[in-house]
## 1
Amino acid sequence: MVVVEVSVVPVGTPSASLSEYVAGCVAVLKQAGGITYRLTPMGTIIEGELDRVWEVVRQMHEQPFAKGCARVVTTVRIDDRRDKKLTMDGKVSAVESRLGR
Amino acid sequence: MVVVEVSVVPVGTPSASLSEYVAGCVAVLKQAGGITYRLTPMGTIIEGELDRVWEVVRQMHEQPFAKGCARVVTTVRIDDRRDKKLTMDGKVSAVESRLGR
Amino acid sequence: MVVVEVSVVPVGTPSASLSEYVAGCVAVLKQAGGITYRLTPMGTIIEGELDRVWEVVRQMHEQPFAKGCARVVTTVRIDDRRDKKLTMDGKVSAVESRLGR
Amino acid sequence: MVVVEVSVVPVGTPSASLSEYVAGCVAVLKQAGGITYRLTPMGTIIEGELDRVWEVVRQMHEQPFAKGCARVVTTVRIDDRRDKKLTMDGKVSAVESRLGR
């Protein structure tokens, strides 16, 4: 299990608004099996097996091209820990319990 | 107003667990005026004026050194939009309204 | 053709030096067919077909685990342009020719 | 001394070409005192004191706005090591000497 953050930024779009393209990426995530995800103000975070997550990221990266964009910059940050199970909730809980909440 | 994502990764720590160091960064955010923030499974997201946000990021980056680390890799992604007010909630709402929720 | 930047950061290593792990990643690149690469002070940059580049990144990401690390944070930034051929040299030349004008 | 990688991506530009904007950022670097830099196919890498580097990054981030862009996404990755002097050349040399070149 890995936790992966993905940001897909289309370049050369008609306006500075990107929500249409982000929504296209989230639509991919909604239909994808084998992963869980969370939308954040700076992208999406995905939890699952790394090879499956990559398949999904690959589809997200194609979305702006399908809408007519000529260039896409996609950033993927993979947190892969193998001495214990890593989950989105577990990562946040570990920090919050240290903060005494 | 900008929305900024920050990830602080100490290198050469005694264990693979980083929650102690993330908690130190969140403690900085809790006490910082002039910004709002959100903890995510992959870092923290901060909203505020860019120069103020940088002051806070600068303090977060120092936290692992204060705990004895010799090396820190900090990643900062700045989303700065000036034709309309950018907020963490506004960014997520724009996507969700397109998705029909 | 895409141009992709990769940074592989092992977490919880015995020292703050990472050159051993970076060298392991570069050894993967040296033997990999179908791509070209360049080592920079902040990671490696790879040029090739996206699916092939991912196969190579996948192997790079495994290197620190093979050396005993328990956790790895890998960052991948993909620049994919489809209205013209994107290359590492072409990207730098385009900037330099503008600066020399 | 830190080594910092910077990528400035304007959003909503008239074309998918970004070399004009990258050249504007490199022009800032050429005139900046107190740092050294290197242009790569995926951004620029800067070496110097962290507070000075940030001042320069701040100016780079403003360049696309000065050219009329409404939105800019800037990514900054800071490698800060304090048990030994970190330099761009030293980082690459350490890897190459391990590879036996």
Note: The longest helix of chain C spans residues 50-66.
## 2
Amino acid sequence: MTKLSLKSALSPLCVLSSALLISAQAYAFEALPDKAPVPKDNPMTPEKVALGQQLFFDPRLSADGTVSCNTCHNVMSSGTDNRPVSAGVAGQNGGRSAPTVWNAAFLTAQFWDGRAATLEDQAKGPILNPIEMGMPHKELAVKRIESIPGYAEQFAKVFGEKSGVTYDNIAKAIATYERTLITPNSSFDRYLKGNKKALSKEAQAGMKLVEATGCTSCHNGPNFAGPIDLPVGQGFYQKFPVYPGSSYETKYNLSNDSGRFQVTKDEKDKNVWRVPTWRNIALTAPYFHNGSVETLDEAVRVMAKTQLNKELSDGDVTSIVAFLNSLTGEFPQQTLPRIPDLSNSSLVTMSDIKK
Amino acid sequence: MTKLSLKSALSPLCVLSSALLISAQAYAFEALPDKAPVPKDNPMTPEKVALGQQLFFDPRLSADGTVSCNTCHNVMSSGTDNRPVSAGVAGQNGGRSAPTVWNAAFLTAQFWDGRAATLEDQAKGPILNPIEMGMPHKELAVKRIESIPGYAEQFAKVFGEKSGVTYDNIAKAIATYERTLITPNSSFDRYLKGNKKALSKEAQAGMKLVEATGCTSCHNGPNFAGPIDLPVGQGFYQKFPVYPGSSYETKYNLSNDSGRFQVTKDEKDKNVWRVPTWRNIALTAPYFHNGSVETLDEAVRVMAKTQLNKELSDGDVTSIVAFLNSLTGEFPQQTLPRIPDLSNSSLVTMSDIKK
């Protein structure tokens, strides 16, 4: 098994969101765990998962009834919308590309800029974002959901009669469903677990190359997005580009968005981004925070140049892409949810859809 | 079992799309069949259903990758979007309310104005409609689908190597999936089949009232939308309003849209519409072709006045609504489809989403 020392992993290239001491133990390529970490204040139950799935697919959480969580994070495919940037209510396009919801439960910072620490915090954002789901305030989201008997009953059962439908509980249910969205048993995982035939020679060559080239100095851990067990609030970030001035930077507008700086207003966070996962990366084109790069081959070249100042041969790119393809996991079969209906009356009215 | 003579059913109020002779046999309230009629040139297979389901949920059939069939005909709930009118690509609102896809397989005319005779013909419309899915031409839809290996393989298997991915076959697969969308075992159906406790007294009173009032002169047959076995091309239509000049007509803009006239350009088709189903009507608010009426109670009052020149008491409305609620069926559990992914590359590019 290829080993990678944590010291090199955290050498100048990768930055934690604040000073963090980690003992310098060695670690290796790691398989994806079967289960995601669960916060103490939001335990998982099958009923909460089922409720969260319904909410995840419910467009009535958007102002005009057109956008659900699944619209941009399509769990029926890659967990993204495979668009350069996402479309919200009233045909508005956002400024960033939707990250995949698959395995997001292993990330220690949510959103490209890490502005939410947990899945629960993340779920509260898009509903109120004026260009995403466009709800004017959380009270309207709560009012909509509690007016639907099928939801009110489930919230009472899952969260207790007293808490019932609250904005926090809506987010808790959605986050709980998202913790089930894990894609185990990729070729890479089966290889790591001993099936040496699971990885093609090309992919094995790529596996060595991503380490030798330096890619794994950031893309490490079981989710290839850094440690999965950092304390809440600690994200795993990286400047992008590290080496400015390349033609890629101009061609793909890589520096136009200041990234995490918009959250912290700290100069050292300019163009700093959460390290994204490599899991299922073959399926989540187009690439980068602005979705500017259409193919994985090109994304690999861009990263080598902008982050490591290296120019890869076509052969190396092919091998690395073969390795990245081995990270496509198995998507668990799910039942199509039934979204609770309101009887005899409509919830989204003409005044909600007129601008 | 309450009987309704076909002669009264087809008395002046209801019109077929052209002269059609039906023998004057008596018929009665009818349960929903378990299976829909299947055209000879598009036989059902499990593989075709599965393919059709994937296509039904695939937003890449829209120009900018945001709108799938399911966006407006949400099978996770009522088979509609529960919006007054539907939203297509780029936040455009259409002019009519999405009819439910559940039990649409029993309709002999598709779209509110009957401009498609079959589910196959219907499926070809929205993809190319500039304010719905907005594909510039069918060749692009075909090109997109055939570029995705997971689709190309299935089309070859389902339709044979030679036909493969064609626009007709895309529509055939979608229509085949839609033929599985049937909601049996409503309280009403169980009552008809002998369980006399399945209908409340209120609903039973409503059942008598819809016949006595005259509603069933159009809303008859197992789908409450007229005969389900008319020859292809024969729809079951009705003028709306039959009695013009009511305050409802003004309040809800009932006559602004000329309906079937837009298809036939025949004066006698002005404000003529396909008779819509009553199945699951409790869940498909808001009501009418323009989605102008928010509640089922009001919809019942409007219909009695505009179609039969009757003013119902509040008690009668309550009974009729109770009966209509008994027409909510069971929605069969389905597996969440996996939509075939394209590897290492994106399909919807920045040029597709920029206007």
Note: Residues 3-30+186-325 of chain B form a domain with the Cytochrome Bc1 Complex; Chain D, domain 2 fold (CATH 1.10.760.10).
